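Could someone model glyoxylic acid with this protein?
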Amino acid sequence: MQILVYAQETQSYVEALQEVAPHAKIFGAATLTEAEPHLEDTEVLFAWGVPPAVLARMPRLRWVQWLGAGVDLIVGQTPDDITLTRVVGAFSTVMSEHVFAYLLALRRGIFEMRQLQREHVWRRVIGPSLRGQRLGVAGLGSIGSEVARLGRAFGMEVWGLSRTDRGGEICDRHFLPTEMRDFAAGVDALVLVLPATPETDGIVDAEVLAGMREGSILVNVGRGNAIVERDLIAALRRGRPAMAQLDVFEREPLPEESPLWDLPNCYISAHCSGPSEPRLVCTFAAENLRRYLQGEPMVGIVDRERGY
Ligand code: GLV
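Reply:
Sure, complex below.
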């Protein structure tokens, strides 16, 4: 059996997979040119960022393990008879820590303190506590659920929004995507962990933003499609939401000329809230390969209809 790993850094994947499949031929490729000689005979593809058009040139391909959580780039391009799996669970810890790193820093005034230090100014900065504030988590998959769990640990009231009612046990109140306006209007911090699907396209628009609370924070670690960026720029200029932390954008890299870069209440990170623990993704990938080889059900099988 032949396996191809297409990623920026392939060595740790190749090693982890080889342990599970000692007899398989496993190749790593960081570019299309490196992948080229292996396309024809590959049965299993582990990939992040592979140009989807290459799938059509892989006649023996049976399974694609996407090395990320969101499969929007590949789901529409993967033929129906090929199993597509995504990573579930491996990003929950780092991404929820990223979310709370910012929520705490913004509420407690850490960026302001740093600025005062630079200016040699001794001034007390006193921000509100997260305890008692209301957190809204849109998208209650493995990552959103962990954000909700941490929110509760910080003493926040947690509201959740998802297309299926998973709210009961992890949230104090559950909303459906059609209720986004009321959901967003009721929370002090709105965290988006939504997959990119036609249903989430522009789900946060001018109307939703206008209804957000005074002093509220918007965080997006899901996909850039969820927010109408033009509307967000206008909303941030008006101060509702008061602040935004954006890890994902309509276009990435965020274009140099985007006004978001210079808005003082916008905090940008370069789509890096998740992959700081590649070890966990390797472990996930190797376990799924073990399941594949032993004919057991794999984890993270993508539902083509849902898109995730
Ligand atoms: C990263 O954005 C991912 O989907 O894993």
